[in-house]
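Listing S7. Sequence submitted for prediction.
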Amino acid sequence: MSKRSALTAILILAGLATPGALPAKAADTLSVDYRNAAFRDGEPAIPAVAKTRIAKALAAAPAEIRQALKSGFAILGEAKGPISGGKAEETAYLLSPKRPVAADPGPSQRQVIALVSGDKLVGAYLLPETGYARLVGTAPGSPGRALLLDGTFMNMGQTVTSLDAVTLGPGEATSVRQSVKDVYVDGCDNPAGDRARKAALVTVDPSSGTLSPAWQDLGCPATTPAR
């Protein structure tokens, strides 16, 4: 996934707490739908008190984790469930030194996954040097669950989003188990290449956690000049 990152991708949910808001997902993620603009542009509905609770929990994190977030952090999504593979309810948070934007090359420091149970830090993990924009759900894994993270970059009139299934551990490390490129592509303002727009419905296999995309041609708005 490109270091120039940001923006969106939103989990299919039965309802939203507020328009454009993404609540934490407690049940298994069944699909992620990039065809729906309201979901693509949504924001996670995370209460302000969560940041204070996470900051206190991070006091117990390894020095490398604290160093990555020494100047503060933004919360870019959460997912609930037995993330680490046990039976206890846990919450995973995607933390970033700054909130990325699609035209920006990405965070100057590493992003972090914080795994919290109640007020206790269960685990803290460094992500690759890639600017993710959202934590949008989970996928089955062994022993724990993989986290679904996406990021978007913009360049020369084109917007492209990709989705990664990221495994936590060993230690503070993470690894990308599967990457689905181009789950959303908007080239309608492309000055030289193809002017096209497509988006994928990504389903999650409930047993293996494999991500399977099915793309749909969305077409460009009528106001886009023809080639």
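Caption to Listing S7: primary sequence and predicted structure tokens for the chain studied. The longest strand covers residues 174-186. The chain has one domain: 21-217.
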